[in-house]
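Problem: given the chain below (260 residues), write out its structure.
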Amino acid sequence: MSSALKIERSGDVARVTLNRPDVRNAFNEALIAELTAAFADLGQDASLRAIVLAAEGKAFCAGADLNWMKAMAGYSWDENHADAAKLAEMLWTIYSCPLPVIARVQGDVYAGGVGLVSCADIVVAVDTAGFCLSEAKLGLLPATIGPYVVRALGEQASRRYFVTAERFSATEAHSLGLVQELATAETLDEKVAALTGALCANGPAAVKACKKLVQDLAHAPITPALRDDTARRIADIRASAEGREGVQSFLNKSKPSWLA
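Solution.
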């Protein structure tokens, strides 16, 4: 546990909480490093089934910390590149985490925070949250977060919000697919718990394989090689101990070991 990040476990679910409410959970070098390390470690923990990404305070994440931005103002090109590469590595570590990640969005999300949310597999947001890709207002662009935001928000909506830097509502984010579930402040935790419960009811290896399957299939052309790859994947999991147990449990109307 650190002052910038809280990591808690409840059974087979981990909760990673941004803990800088005084600066609206904005990124700095320390938070970026801690998030990278946390998701790298938790993703390899065989006892876990899901990770909830949450935040303390009124805002989920306001993007870059002002003091961090002041320091960057004097950076050379090489220093800027090295700094941005750390953020890129953090985003990739969360996006590629083997475990499913649920973002619990309790407040506003700006700039790099939108990238953070876009790396999650499932996003549950309060209906009062606002979203904004505000980089263009500062003469910047959402480059590092771009690959994840475009995938989550969609190309056409990204074409608009990247260049206008308009604020958009949680309802709009939901209609565009960035947010999968809307909630009130009172029902937010209930909806997150229902989703973690659904994840934990499934085969652990199957859930990881499903997540990887979606990432590998998205936007991939349906070639003979891809068709063969998918056939190999289902053959692999059917022949696995978990796959055999799951099918037999279904046929025998009994519970598999992961539900025992």
